[in-house]
Amino acid sequence: MSRQIAEEIIERSPSVAIRVTGPENGYTTLFVTENISSYGYTKDDFISGKIRWIDIVHPDDLEMVSDVLQKRHEEKKDRFNIVYRVKKADGTSLWVNDTTVVEHALDGKIVHYDCIMRDYTDTKSRIAKIEDSLKQKAVLNNILQGMHDADLDRALQTILEKSGDYLGISRITLFKNSRNHTRCKAANEWCNTGILPLAGQDVILDYENDLPGVMSALMESDSIIVHAGDDQSVFPKELMTEEGGGVALFPVHVQEELFGFLCFNECIKDGEWDNDKIVFLENVTRLVSTALLRKRNEQVITNMALTDQLTGLHNRYYLEKRLDYVAAKAKEITQSGYVLFID
Q: Which of 155-169, 224-238, 254-268, 276-290 has the lowest average pLDDT?
């Protein structure tokens, strides 16, 4: 009676129980619960030998699982956990947390494994999100440290490089608008290995002809996401390909003025622009805006120090700095010159 109750409890649980022989006997199935049907298989598939437990382990995890079994055997551990993926009958996969108990013969050989496989997919996903969030924070902190660089181009390059390395996408390009906001040019860029740069090709795009509707969309929204399968007519061939994950455009503002936009481009592999990634891209865009604003403020302060506020002409301080520089250069090349002073 107790055995029947135990079997009923196991069958009604979301966990799959299976007993398989050791590697010397080819991992043949001695027992499996009916709820193996949750993976799309029947109990008879396993009992008949048509499918073995080792056959449903995901190919990418098979070597790891084999190594763990061998290592635990060498350590003489009879109870342990393994997290791996299982292939379902429909071709999809799910993560399982497998609690395994090993039965040994007197000579030490493995008689069988008793495995309880619990669905671990949601837990694995939550852990991955937490790990990714921590990694994002570390990347953003590294970017913030790099933004202290006095050179704006180096600071921008640091932002693009660290973001690109983290995302693993094809290319990140900062496009700068012309004064009248009718065109834009690739100004700063990071490219993954094997990806051709745009900035080095002097790519200048006309909003009306090359990017129809993009300017108004940038003014009205926080981002433009276009997947490879979407209508690509609004983008020039330099930014889109038939394959890959498409592009994500984020407007870059310096205070209230639209400076241009950041283009995150995935033109090789499939990619998803999920909410977590979009939040990260928004943070990167804000950091770019902050770096540009800092440079603008520094330029304003420099101009105030070197020019007369009433006339806008260079002042005496600028003259003295310039004379010191010219005198030093003249000394280097052993040349002389003159200063004409008119009162």
A: 224-238
Q: Tokens 């969309």 sit at which residue?
A: 217
Distance CA 31, CA 1 (A): 19
Task: List, for residues 305-319, the tens digit of each pLDDT value.
Answer: 667 777 778 777 778
* Helix-helix angle 275-306:152-167, to 10 degrees: 170
What does the alpha-carbon distance between residue 147 and residue 302 come to, in Å, rounded to a whole number?
Answer: 19
Q: Helices (DSSP H) in the chain: which residue ranges? A: 2-12, 43-47, 59-74, 121-146, 152-167, 214-220, 275-306, 316-332
Determine contact, residues 163/277, Cβ cutoff 8 Å.
no
CA distance 312 to 132: 51
Q: Say how far apart CA 152 and CA 158 lie, in whole Å.
A: 10
Please write the tens of the pLDDT for every residue from 33-88: 998 999 999 999 999 999 999 999 999 999 999 999 999 988 989 999 999 999 99
CA distance 312 to 279: 43
CA neighbours within 13 Å on the CB side: how many for 156? 22
The 8-class DSSP code of residue 258 comes to E
**Nearest one of 52, 18, 27, 50 to 110, comparing CA atoms:** 27
Fill in the DSSP letter of residue 307. B
HSE (side-chain half, CA atoms, 13 Å) at 245: 19
The span from the CA of 169 to the CA of 191, in Å, is 8
At 250-293, the pLDDT tens digits run: 999 988 888 999 988 887 776 677 788 888 889 889 888 888 88
pLDDT band of 28, cuts 50, 70, 90: very high
Instruction: Give yes or no for a contact between 283 and 277, defined as CB atoms under 8 angstroms apart.
Output: no
Whether residue 243 contacts residue 267, with contact meaning beta carbons closer than 8 Å, is answered with: yes
